[in-house]
Amino acid sequence: MENIRNFCIIAHIDHGKSTIADRLLEFTGTVSAKDLQAQVLDDMDLERERGITIKSHAIQMDYKQDNQDYVLNLIDTPGHVDFSYEVSRSIAACEGALLIVDATQGIQAQTISNLYLAIENDLEIIPVLNKMDMPTAMPEEVKEQIVELLGGSVDDIIEASGKTGLGIEEILTAIIETVPAPKGDVNAPLQAMVFDSVFNSYRGIITYIKIFNGKIAQKDLVKFLNTDKQYYVDEVGVLRLKQEKRNELYAGDVGYIISGIKSSVDIKVGDTITHVDNPCAEGIQGFEEVKPMVFAGVYPIDAEDYEDLRYALEKLQLNDASLTYMPESSLALGFGFRCGFLGLLHMEIIQERLDREFNMNVITTVPNVSYNVFTKKGQKVIVHNPAGLPDLKEIDYIEEPYIDADIITKTDYFGQVMKLCLSKRGELKNQNYLSADRVELSFTLPLAEIVFDFYDKLKSISKGYASFDYHPTGYVQADLVRLEILMNGEKVDALSTLIHEDHAYSFGRRIVDKLKDLIPRQQYDVAVQAAIGSKIIARSTIKAVRKDVTAKCYGGDISRKRKLLDKQKKGKKRMKQIGNVEIPQTAFLAVLKLD
Length: 595
What we know:
By secondary structure, the protein is an alpha+beta fold. It contains 14 helices and 31 strands. It has an 8-stranded antiparallel beta sheet with strand order 11-10-16-7-8-15-12-13.
């Protein structure tokens, strides 16, 4: 155990975590030259295409220093705020962290957020200044920022470059000297924490574990404390580039076990594994259940695919513990699921993974947050879906979730960022100048306002410089109304939203104008209306496609034309009574990108 080091890499998005991980694997000889490629640990096509890490990845390296052999367990983590749950799980399995800061951009909001997560878990922090080979690097300025945030001295900061390999040896030396060896007793009862799991169609569920005490071997009978399920261990091993089988794993090790688990219900991330005949006294504490921030309905395009969608979501949840789902139905879309996501990017990624990994074509409804509705009888109802809102006559008041948002931006964009936040019903709490040209702003904002397009707008007005991080603070009473969209007089529940009273009129107007352009024309006029209760607040008409019935009528009395037109009019009226308007998927997506 003395020679084991468990560490993770944390940073803001795009600061070069995966590239540094590549260099570490190359330097320690873990990856052979023929297997070497950019983003070695990002094994999803989606991660490679977008250049982001979505899943945290664990890998074991061997390194020799001063004639001592060391085992280094590295966990590379995502940087986007939507995947912070992945980061918290990785941090729980480590004793140290590499904090990587981009020398060209300095400290960003997510850097600070991930750093606090690591400090709360008593991790040893090693600051690394990456991208030192860039001509725009500002090492002195950024080093000052790091010292101000972390304390310590400027000499402790390692200068590195993931591209050229500068400073990689110093990083490995610092890991061995600074990160403490894992504590634990090999002879104590087994106590291992589940920090991730993946599904394999041949072997069942593969569980990734960090062992705190005791040891685990093949053929052992183990049980999961939370679910109280018992299994025989078929295989144990460590996570190299491929899984490598071992006879036993001991306290301090990070590895995997396969025990033929087939059902995802039997396994929970953060659960404790122990032996059946010699169990540990208590489970490992301090692991939080994830709280979804954004909810949206996910429906199969073909109603027959409902069971396939359930299976796909079940398998995805194993690999992504922050996804939650429960069945729901809609008049317009049939049977589907109400899914909880950590943010809009998370929702987009899940949609893409359903399509690529399971060949599932789905329709996603307008995302919304969860509200607390208090009725006049004093009951509290949690509403994830506008369709589930009680009758207006029964509602006393509604509370919506609020967040504390931290935005770090260059002072040149200060005014535009302020304007954006205030337009989203934000309140400025604090502003703090980190340096002459960088300012940190703290706002309280309603979560519903940042769900749609806040992040995109923030990036565009600040030319990509502003960084954003948030955490929930609780619920506040608000004047909310249910905005409903009517198509030909019938409600389309998949497009209804809960929205603040002040924004309802402008939002309703924009939605009906957008739908008018997107919905194909019918044989009859179609009215698209936005309504609050029984009051119509906006309307657009999709004009009918019509056949020119008077084309063959040359000359003669006007009554001949009138007769043909009246006949057509009656036919259209009858058609309108029995007609059904199909709403294309593009209409649902366009509502998300109204601007």
